[in-house]
Write a structure and sequence with these properties.
The complex is a heterodimer of chains A (295) and B (383). Chain A is mostly helical. Chain A is built from ten helices and four strands; from the N terminus they run H-H-H-H-E-E-E-H-H-H-E-H-H-H. The chains are: A mainly alpha (295), B alpha/beta (383). Chain B: Belongs to the leucine-binding protein family.
Amino acid sequence: MDQLLQQLINALSLGGIYAMLALGLAIVFSIVGLINFAHGDIMTFGGYGIFLSMVFGFPPIAALCIGLGAAVVMALAMERTAFRVMRGADVISLLITSFAVSEILKVLFQNGISARPVPISFPAAWSGSYQIGGMTIGVAPTASILVTIVSLGCLTFVLRRLAIGMAMRAAAEDFDMLRMLGVRANRVVAAAFAISGLLAGIAAVIWTAQRGSVDPMMGFFPVLKAFIATVLGGLGSLGGAVLGGFVVGTLEVLTQAFLPDALAPYRDAIVLSAVIAVLLVRPDGLLPARSGARS
Amino acid sequence: MKLKSLLLGSAIAALGTAAFAEDEYIIGVMSAQSGYLAPYDGPAYAGFKFCMDEKMANGGLNGSIPVRLIVKDTRSDIAYGVQVVQEMLDDGAQFIVSSADADPTIAAAQITAADMVPTMTFAGTAPVLTQVGPHVFGSYPGDNQQGAVLAGYARDQGFEKAWLLTSPDSAYTLGGPRYFGEVFETLGGEVVGESTFSLNQPDFSAIVTNIQNAETAPDVIVTWAWEPDFPAFIRALRGAGVETQVMGGDVLDTPTVRGLGDVVDGVVHTSGGYPEEGSAYAAFIDRFTEATGTTPDNNYYVNGCDIADMIEQAVAAAGTTDPAAVSAAMAEIEDGEATMSNFTFKGTDRMPLREVVVARITGDGEKEFVLRQMADPETLPKP
């Protein structure tokens, strides 16, 4: 029983990261129809922000804040330089643009910083653990879950209570109507990218705290999983993205933990088969978007 | 008349060029400049070129054979690497130095097999890589040698129960711990469990929880995981409060792993060499640093240099640059001289028998020498 509970905590921790990344993808997709595969590179940039801050002697907390800021700046720069000129283009063109941006950034990371992972050494206490009953629980996964809950709570507040949040939700429903009502499109889209970057930055903070290194491919694999989560949840659906993230994270952890040894090499295939099975029953995802925004 | 003279002159010049080209020894080098192999191919190529340049400054291989390098980026893509090797062969390559992993080397060796062009990996250590044919060579101590020496050390330290962390995604990450386990059990130890992971796996917490709750707790965990998987694993392990001894392969011998701080304090790993004061290895580091401004911080640099020495000695032994003859001569070298350690191909399956170093990482980001030992060829696990 203790082991199952521990694994559920692991699942929540990993699912939370996927949920934040998936939400970042979903926010941008719901407004501008862009599946941003360079989202992982925003996360990577945030990681390098943390690394470079620590190299220059900033204390760990300050380094984390700088990492967050770096991710937001990168997301905004990406929107301004690559995606604004492509606004209104079809989904395929936007997708290819995002792949190009991603490749350019990876090459810049490899040649400008290092092709190999660079270490980030956080204080020892950050990788400590504590006991609850018979369970040993890590500080990092606990922090990861708490940060995820707080982040998603804050985001819900922004989207539901603040004018810019409501404008973003309206844009997700009908962007043209929003513009006709006099809301500045650039401001709404930039806000979407900034929030998306902030979520990627938070994911980068948790990821680097748990993994201890940053490399040019750091964001690629989690964002791939986050993309699967957004499709599973319902492309364009914010709630669906969060739910999809937690489902994918839980499936990954539980198959890792309880699959027999003989089936272990098929773990990813089994997780993806489960996702396909769900989509066969619910082709629009677990919580489909209300608008017609579909790929 | 002028036209005839011009044609004649051009023909003589072309013949001259051809004659010179025939005297050159052409070496094709697969070097990934991006992707997962770049951190290994990059330093290995730098060391190789540095020592090849030194030889060229002294007249070429054995002081008489000029070398021309054809260097091509493989982008860590095996399919593209195969295309690159074919291009290099088309350009006349007589020797191929392949990427620092078994899988791209095996793929390259399929292409070089037809003409028996000797193919040597920069640092691939999976012993299976030489099974492609008699023209394929390793350069670094094989995983079975490293596993055997590490298992002997673990038993000497009193460890009795091992947990293996493997990945079926590569011959290296799967084979190393398994060789360790085989020798560990031969020496009286017990493998009490095994977990598998995928390369670039996002999270290791589920594996750590399984180890924590294992029926029989291990007293040593062994993995050949590399970056970024090893840093993720060790942080998850220590983060969960598991202080069990961790041991690993030579891939842990990097500044990135050493830079992880407290979580890697005490981690023990194998290595191909150790630059003791006054050694040839230490002298290489000094020469390289002075010439390039970069201080070699891992063994791939010096192993690249050693490959240049291996080629030179094989060509000298063959007495010709004919690819098949060089392959045959390389396979017969016994106690050849190199900078990191001497090497023997004779009597092996062309993974060189070389000394294995065991080192321990300290919490301040350094490593300390533990032991240096040659694996017993009679008891080596078979690939």
